[in-house]
Amino acid sequence: MTGAPTPPPATRPRRSRPRTVLPLAVAAWLVLEIWLLTVVADAAGGFTVFLLLIAGIVLGSVVIKRAGRRAFRNLNEALQRGTAPSSGGGSGLTMLGGLLLILPGPISDAAGLLLLVPPVQRALGRYAERAVDRKLRHAAPGGLGDAFQQARMYHPGGKVVQGEVVRDEPGDAPREQRPHLNR
């Protein structure tokens, strides 16, 4: 002992509820998927389960490929028109449905097939849109809620200055003749 005071033990920050529950939920989901696959294999046979798994992979791949092509086509058309791409169409939810079809297991297959039904897609899309709007409305100032509302310029010294974009128009005076821009 040198007589030096010992530092207090470091306290770990408390984990949030989703970070605690999510691993347990994923583990429970995997156990349930495996158990249901064994039940189906006992009832219908192992070869039938194998064919179901292969069919899910093929169908999920086709769904993801078609949804990706549709999303790319919509983006291309919007860029040609010079407008913002539309968020409608449910390409993201369709891709999620395809991904769930690719994952082995009857629960993920049922959820994936459910996401391919247009009324379910519309309902989930509206719900997700409302949830994102609510999150952005209640976000802390300077956080994600203000991310698209503010323009910032970063100076070499690291100082952040609120600013706006100034574009030269054809009829404007040359830059050298505008004293407020020559600093």
Automatic annotation (TrEMBL):
Organism domain of life: Bacteria
Regions of compositional bias (Basic and acidic residues) in chain numbering: 165-183
Residue ranges of the TM segments: 21-41, 47-64
Pfam families registered for this protein in UniProt: FxsA
InterPro entries (alphabetical): FxsA (IPR007313)
Record keywords: Membrane, Transmembrane, Transmembrane helix
CC terms in the record's Gene Ontology section: membrane
Protein name per its UniProtKB record: FxsA cytoplasmic membrane protein
The species this protein was found in: Streptomyces glaucescens
Taxonomic lineage: Bacteria, Bacillati, Actinomycetota, Actinomycetes, Kitasatosporales
